[in-house]
Amino acid sequence: MKLKPYAALLGALLSFGALAATPRDTLVVAKNIEDIVALDPAQAFEFSSGEVVSNVYEPLVQYDARDPSKLLPGVASSWKTGADGKSIEFTLRPNGVFASGNPIRAEDVLFSFRRVIKLNKAPAFILAQLGWTNDNIAQMVTKLPNGNVSVAWTGNFGPGYVLNVLAARPGNIVDEKLVMANEQAGDLGNGWLNRNSAGSGPFTLKMFRPKEVLVLEANKRATEAPKLNSVLFRNVTEPATQRLLIEQGDADIARDLGPDQIAALRSRNDVRIEDFPQAAVHFISLNQKSEKLRNPAVWEAMRYLVDYEGISKQLLRGQMRVHQAFLPVGFAGALTTTPYKFDPDRAKAILTQAGITNLEIDMDLINAPRFMDMAQSMQGTMAKAGIKLNLLPGTGAQVITRYRARQHQAMLLYWGPDFFDPHSNAKAFAYNVDNSDGAYQSTTTWRNSWHVPELSAKTMDALKESNPARRATMYQALQQEVQAKSPIIMTFQEQNQAAFRNNVKGYVQGSVADLIKYEGVTK
Length: 523
Fold this sequence. Notes:
The protein is an alpha+beta fold. It has 3 domains: about 1-55 and about 200-270 and about 500-523, Periplasmic binding protein-like II (D-Maltodextrin-Binding Protein, domain 2, 3-Layer(aba) Sandwich), CATH 3.40.190; about 60-190, Dipeptide-binding Protein, Domain 1 (Dipeptide-binding Protein, domain 1), CATH 3.90.76; about 280-495, Roll (Dipeptide-binding Protein, domain 3). Helix content is about 35%, strand content about 25%. The chain contains 19 helices and 21 strands. It has helices spanning about 5-15, 45-55, 105-120, 125-130, 135-140, 160-165, 175-180, 190-195, 240-250, 260-265, 295-305, 310-315, 345-355, 370-385, 395-405, 420-430, 445, 455-465, 470-485, and strands spanning about 25-30, 60, 60-65, 65-75, 75-80, 85-90, 140-145, 150, 170-175, 205-210, 215-220, 230-235, 255, 270-285, 320, 360-365, 385-395, 410-415, 490-500, 510, 515. Helix 11 (about 295-305) runs antiparallel to helix 13 (about 345-355), helix 16 (about 420-430) packs antiparallel against helix 18 and helix 18 (about 455-465) packs antiparallel against helix 19 (about 470-485). The protein is globular, with a radius of gyration of 23 Å.
């Protein structure tokens, strides 16, 4: 990578208070990027990495960030359902090119999808839902004689659901020639793509230094070239520091501010605050590999040991709303009832009746202020019923890696839908048909070793239902079961607040990380 053009800029930006204003052609974003584990679209499965991937790559079809119920062209300019009702034919964008200058070919689409299935990294299950395996992928995704691409699937669901799946993160198309030129030891370029990029989106990945900085550079060959030359993400974990950076003009956007910083910045004339409803749901989950956490009385008692209203209204002051179901508000069938209130006496009675005493639980969490604030509140309220909660903070990458390896006892974390269909979260919270350690699944059920055959069957029944009203009712029933009888304690739905210098215009932030867009930003 040629880093020299950025050397002076980085030196200034990474020295606190070095600039009176950010460079005119560069957007500087202060945020915590320590959750990034991977940047390869076949592996990336974290919030910050999703934000990067969506600005660097394009899928065949993509969500409208302002209205994700709508799909827009991506690498494909048009599409039509096959006569069999089990395939879609995609026409690729005429004269489309990757940032490298290589043309976008049907072969790149085939390679990208086959690569996801073969690597079988965290998000691969999203495409595997279409019935794709290493054995059949070559027959399911094919190049047609006219140069178009045919995508077929198995399963009782329609083309609308398939399009939503293909618009998800692992559906992004990579430049086969560039990727394979950087393959090492048969990794299909995975190692290289976690520090470089091979997409056709509005930006390219110029630099990534974990826990320090990430730089996107404008892709001049993009269909619509960005208005600014660069976006620089400066890793800033402390909200107080983010506040100082944006006050002094050393950052254009601050993304992880706490309620105190938001309140202080509202009084400034040179900074504005914007609110963005998010689809991320927050929860406590209990690993069923730990014998002491298998008693349903523990699950029930802990539901009454969260001070939901106190955390939402007093501690985080609008950054979380009480939400006790796995489908976020805005999704069809989302359950909005909140039957659990903070009631330590009731929790104590539940534990006493079950003969549970002196329960001590280790809880992993991300070492960021909002998670620490919530966890410390929970630590205090759990103690009122005799549960000792030991907090184990770590970076986002550390915590998520432990979660995926099922090495935790309890976990305080969040989940964002992978695509805009209720099945995305239903499968994450109510599906696990193979609980063996070797059957990795990117779901909260598997990661918490919660085997749910009956709920799994109901989840697939809801997926197959064609009547929208009946389907929504089925998802509500699923949520009620998980809400009342699972080792997953749903708590909040996120409400993001960000601060902007007043000259920043054109920023778009949808309800998930993949719908944060920078190509239209000016300053």
